[in-house]
Amino acid sequence: MASDQNFVDFVMEQIRNAGEITAKKMFGEYGIYADGKLFGLICDNKLFIKPTISGREFIGNVIEAPPYEGAKPSFLIEEKIENSDWLSELIRISLKELPTTKTKKKK
């Protein structure tokens, strides 16, 4: 099931204070970027954040699930998705640990 645009817009609004946030459509779902760095996915109207040590400590009681079949588990954000300040802070914390996006060389 593809994610609903209203849910994507809601998530984007909730995390607007975490940096320059963009969403890119990928196979009916969405990759979520902050300042050009991929940090999460929206799949089946659920928000998944890439796992980091600092993010795990910040969340506390982490729920992990794969965003799609065959994917590695990510942090599934459910209960606190409506807490914009908490969610934005989680993303800022996570971004510090995530590797920078590799630029593709032109052929």
Automatic annotation (TrEMBL):
Tell me the organism: Pedobacter psychrotolerans
InterPro entries documented for this protein: TfoX_N
State a single Pfam family of this protein. TfoX_N
Report what the protein is called: Competence protein TfoX
Organism domain of life: Bacteria
Please give the Gene3D superfamilies that the UniProt record associates with this protein.
YgaC/TfoX-N like chaperone
Domain called TfoX N-terminal: residue spans:
13-96
In the record, what lineage is assigned to the organism producing the protein?
Answer: Bacteria, Pseudomonadati, Bacteroidota, Sphingobacteriia, Sphingobacteriales
